[in-house]
Amino acid sequence: MKLATLCYIIDKEHNKTLMLHRVKKENDYHEGKWNGLGGKFEDGESPEDCVIREIKEEAGLNLISPMMRGFIAFPLFDGIEDWHVFVFTADNFTGELIDSKEGNLEWIPSDKITGLNLWDGDKIFLEWLNQEKFFSAKFVYEKGKFINYKVNFY
Fold it and tell me: Can you give the CATH number for the domain in which 41 is found?
């Protein structure tokens, strides 16, 4: 099982969200997709530690008080093992964007994100990020194809 974080960084003033277009790494399972930012936990990290470190490494930004919005289980997402992902939003940060080795970073108008080449499940849970309730979900994919999901709100 892999533990990871996923963060959607929001520029409230311009109503844009920072997205990562996965086009730089060879043999990238996410090749061509647009994703939020984040990545795998390192030993000893909390979800907050992980998301802050990952955003600094991937985008050069220092998050201030990221907000955990939910948790998603992806059973056998890559065909090998389960992924458990803590989902965050952040609208308070400092720093300047860097050239990410993961892909191309771009500020996308928030109302245009679901029109990007996203994973099918992302189009569902992105709507939950603006709710007051915490969500816990399971998204099932088989060989990269979305099958179904279950969700609870708290």
Answer: 3.90.79.10
